[in-house]
Amino acid sequence: MPGESVPQGLWLPPRTATLVVAASNSSDRGRAQADYVCDGVNDHIEIQAALDVLPATGGEVFLLDGTYYIEASLVLSSYQTLRGCGRNTILTTTTANLDIITATGGAGTEKVGILIADLCVDGAAGGVANDEGILWTYVDYNKIVNVWSQNNKENGIHLDNCDSNNLIGNTCRLNSPGYGIFLGYGGSCHNTIQGNVCQGNAQDISLYDADYNTVAGNTCDAPGLYGINLYTSDGNTISDNTCRSKTDNGIDINTSNNNIVRGNVCYGNRTIGIHIINSDHNIISGNICQESSQAADNTYDNIYVITSDYNLITCNRCRQGILANQPRYGINIESGTKNIVQGNDLHDAGKTANFNDAGTCTIVKSDNREIEITQVKDYAYVKNTSGGDLVAGDVVSHKAVAAGNEVTTPAAVGEDQVFGMLGENIVNNAYGYVQVGGKTTLLKATNAGGNIAIGDFLCTEIGNRARLAAAADMAFAISLEDCDAVDQVIDALLIVPRKI
């Protein structure tokens, strides 16, 4: 009747460029006022018809509460909004291997301005195994907001070749064997994935061939393989996420470079908190990692780096925690070259040890909390101008007349210009790393000045070796091993050069 109020709990949107669709089980009031009414069979026909009559400049299809049976993919175009009443607007299917909501453009003809909001895509409600909940291809500058996408056989939300989209506040659960949110296959860049809850997916959030995206403030919860996974994806920012109780790693960085992993919380994961493999020039900063290695006690690490170079690992907090199974190391550099470990809090961080470094030329600063003093190492970047090729372990001195950091082999016993020892091979007139502080097992020594005992000061010998220091010699190391041979590689602790 004219002037009759809308019943409490039923909201109908303004009618300008908006079409209302009712489900077969929507309220009687909603069905009476809807533009399209579904009957519970092939409901995609009514919804698609409503989308297709929207003006080219855009508009909204509003789905009332209820369950909609989608037996052919819904296809959205530019500037269209598909909105529901929230969790109680359910899109499902009885057709196997179906992508429920789609939008597809092309290279140079991308779809833009699409919004999907406030509805639930549930692949299991219809009793079959569908494919994707939401699938976009070549779709740019769009939003998916407050959507529940769950029980899909493949992925909850899947974007391929899609740029500058916002995925905010969605809940993606129990999508398997796929992902909660997946970006990739051909490149998806400059997207924002923020504030989503991903739980129980085969993997929660995955970037594959996806660069310069922001993944922030998401919760990735058990079960499932990885919380956040990057593969061949560069320049992304992964910040302020929580990854807990995952079957494998909390955050997995694989063959991905120049990413920032900052301020995340990884705890209770069955293997590794943060895993970096075949990945270079990343910043791992300010993360909290604890109670890793829940699959097996003292087996996996809170932060693990393997075959990865030039990464900065700084200001992270690692703990064993209180669970029965505990991580092996707080930070473990298994392999890789020229990584920097600085300013981390490693109090009670690992059951075997707080820190392990098996890398090459790892810079380990003394401001890491609770590591062994013998684990501290520092390097300088220098040019070899000795006139010949030098190898790891060779002793070098600063060149008397140098254009910058040039080094050569010592010309005298106890030379004042002693610099350190090579951490890697450096051919003549090339640059490389010289260790100037910390423990080393590659120092070349000789007993030419007398047998060397543990605790003796060492100085330069003529050439590229160290020897026992005598009074007034400039010592640059303390021996940690005996040396009673002419040529021997010994363990030593490099120190600031000083007269003795």
In CATH, the architecture of the largest domain is: 3 Solenoid
First-to-last CA distance: 103 Å
Got a strand count? 47
Q: Could you say which overall geometry the principal axes of the C-alpha atoms support?
A: elongated
Helix content: under 10%
Number of separate domains = 2
Query: Which regions contain 5 or more consecutive residues with pLDDT less than 50?
Result: 1-9
**Helix count, DSSP H or I runs of 4 or more residues:** 2
The CATH superfamily title of the largest domain = Single-stranded right-handed beta-helix, Pectin lyase-like
| Annotated CATH topology of the largest domain | Pectate Lyase C-like
Radius of gyration: 31 Å
Tell me what you see in this structure.
With 500 residues, the protein is mainly β. It has two domains: 91-111 and 123-375, 3 Solenoid (Pectate Lyase C-like), CATH 2.160.20; 378-499. It is built from two helices and 47 strands. The strands form four sheets. The protein has a 24-stranded parallel β-sheet that branches. A hairpin with a 7-residue loop joins strand 40 (395-398) and strand 41 (406-408). It starts with 17 loop residues before the first strand and ends with a strand.
